[in-house]
Specification:
16 helices; 4-stranded antiparallel sheet; 7-stranded mixed sheet; PLP-dependent transferase; globular
Length: 404
């Protein structure tokens, strides 16, 4: 496999041309220069309402359509199976409003998820008189969701299951195909996956994953603040559309889009897909995974070596098992204190908190208001940056301890 060229990757991002080192990428990645240029060009030359027949209108129609197709292609979905909108939070809320269930039907919701993939389903359960079951990892060591912890919750009345592909705090990759197989062993049961923390790191194939719904946000994937939701075509027949009565309902966009797919942002998506390999993404994502594996190995090995740090989730450095989103607490130091001291001494940008995974932090991990320290890297971060980060951490954390 060809070695990953991180210098070439960094050159594509204007924001990386400064002293700030971005280690809060799970909150939002930096934006490709070609995406920025594309948005500027669209607004400067073709910013008209869609649907017009005049020349500029046709150009605008075409660029918007190509953006939608590129978003579908990124997930290996068909264009009529995807919808774009302001955020994954909004799109999941929209889809939750389209489904009707019977009292006593059962829904299973992962408690380690971002609230984006919890609140819509909790509300849907209450609205329909459903029985809500909470899904938690079987082990507090690796914190991994799996079939072994899901199976006891499944029953003939199970209608809907939600979980994340990767937790935005734990960084662990869940085995979605095996989870989907278990869910679909119940006739009529559906699986919804939040892919926001997975999409920047690995290739998505919704057909291979065998999911019914899958959402992620492009502002985590080197693009603008817009999101995409996939819904399997067969499932769409069960949805009660939210759109105006005269809007065609043959596509997911027609059912729940609500004119929320920002034109200039949507039309920039082909630039992102092209950067990530276009029609041949596999080699690109393999190179990204290998490079990210080196980044997380360096940081995890340091954190483990100290003896006074609690790392949450799987501690392996294997990129097949985790992505470089690493959360921890330091014994004897508040998470906020760690980050604020780092802010004062360095140009490394990372954060403290619960990152909207409040139930995970409070109810499962038993953490206080300051939550965890989260360092989240992507492919444009470098091994040198990690080395300097470790030096910064060593200067602000208590003297090393070998005791456990």
């Amino acid at each position: 496999m060809e070695a990953f060229n991180v210098a070439k990757a960094k050159s594509r991002f204007p924001a990386l041309n400064q002293d700030q080192v971005f280690l809060d990428n799970a909150g939002g990645s930096q934006v490709l220069g070609s995406v920025i240029d594309s948005i500027s060009k669209y607004l400067s030359h073709t910013n008209v309402q869609l649907g017009a027949s005049y020349a500029i209108g046709q150009v605008s129609n075409s660029r918007y359509s190509e953006g939608c197709k590129a978003a579908a292609r990124y997930m290996n979905a068909d264009p009529d199976e995807v919808v774009l909108g302001a955020s994954t939070t909004q799109l999941l809320r929209n889809i939750s409003l389209t489904m009707k269930f019977e009292p006593g039907d059962e829904i299973i919701v992962s408690k380690i998820d971002h609230e984006t993939n919890i609140k819509p389903w909790v509300d849907m359960a209450e609205r329909n008189g459903m029985t809500l079951k909470w899904w938690v990892p079987a082990s507090t060591e690796d914190m991994k969701l799996g079939v072994h912890s899901l199976t006891p919750l499944l029953s003939p009345r199970t209608k809907f299951v939600s979980c994340c592909h990767v937790s935005n705090i734990l960084g662990i990759i869940h085995d979605i195909p095996s989870i989907a197989k278990a869910v679909h062993s119940i006739p009529g049961a559906m699986l919804c996956v939040d892919g926001v923390s997975y999409a920047p790191h690995r290739q998505i194939d919704v057909k291979e994953l065998d999911v019914d719904f899958y959402g992620f946000s492009w502002y985590k994937v080197y693009g603008p603040h817009i999101a995409t939701l996939y819904a399997r075509r067969a499932i769409q027949e069960k949805l009660n559309p939210l759109s105006h009565f005269f809007i065609p309902k043959e596509t997911l966009e027609g059912k729940i889009g609500l004119a929320a797919a920002n034109y200039e942002l949507t039309q920039s998506i082909p630039e992102i897909v092209s950067y990530l390999g276009g029609s041949s993404p596999k080699p690109v994502f393999e190179a990204i995974a290998a490079h990210e594996g080196k980044l997380q190995a360096a940081l995890l090995e340091y954190l483990i070596s100290r003896g006074d740090i609690n790392i949450y989730g799987e501690k392996t450095t294997d990129p097949a098992i985790r992505v470089p989103t690493i959360s921890f607490t330091v014994r004897g130091m508040d998470s906020r204190e760690v980050v604020e001291q780092a802010d004062q001494k360095s140009h490394f940008g990372f954060r403290w908190g619960h990152f909207y995974s409040k139930r995970l932090c409070s109810e499962i991990l038993g953490l206080g208001d300051s939550g965890v320290v989260r360092i989240s890297m992507v492919h444009y971060n470098t091994e040198e940056e990690v080395k300097l980060l470790i030096e910064t951490l060593d200067s602000i954390l208590p003297p090393r301890s070998t005791s456990k």
